[in-house]
Amino acid sequence: MSNIILAIDTSMNYCSVAVYKKKIYSLSDYCNKEHTIKILPMIKKILLLAKITFKDINYVIFSKGPGNFTGIRIAIGVAQSLSLSLNIPILGISTLAIMAEKAWRKYHQKKILVAIAAGIDKIYLSKYIKDSRLLWIGNKTEVLIHSDDIKEETKNLDNDWFFVGNGLEKFNSKNFFNYEKIKNISPNAKDLIPFSLLNIKNKNFLHFTKLEPNYLNNIF
Hints:
Helices cover 30% and strands 26% of the residues. It is of the alpha/beta class. The protein has 2 domains: 5-94 and 187-210, Nucleotidyltransferase, domain 5, CATH 3.30.420; 95-183, ATPase, nucleotide binding domain (Nucleotidyltransferase, domain 5, 2-Layer Sandwich). Strand 4, helix 2 and strand 5 form a beta-alpha-beta unit. The protein is globular.
């Protein structure tokens, strides 16, 4: 079987799509609350750029959260529909892990603290480390915390840690972090591709009926 992959992310304020067909084709656009309007035209456009049709897709992968509740449901709905109609495997990956992968791609950092603002006074937080096999370790560190607890949660981190996401800037974490190491980035569908290739190799894709969103806690 060929490894043509469609990746979708609508978990935050951007919509992004990517296709892997020996190389990566990707599109990203600021959506705010227009995910429903923009995501399907973006998928059609990325297929045209990659010169493929829906029937050529072998796998679909998406960002399963945490993040914006509506955005996560949109991604799941689109991915499930494609998986069912095309009879192809499907997989959801944590938004926090995707952002760690983006930090690796853009800044070549291996120890990533990811923080996403979650409502008025909460933060989705995770600590991801890329190990010697270049695999991400950290899914069990994902938590939803109160913003007042951020200093306690991160007090033992050494200077090798790199911070990404909007959760740290929002709560004035620059008072106790090296502000130069904080990057407010958003997830991108192209950073789902490395997870896809690994899971294809390990045959870890799922049936569309077994998907579960990663809300950590539904507060949106």
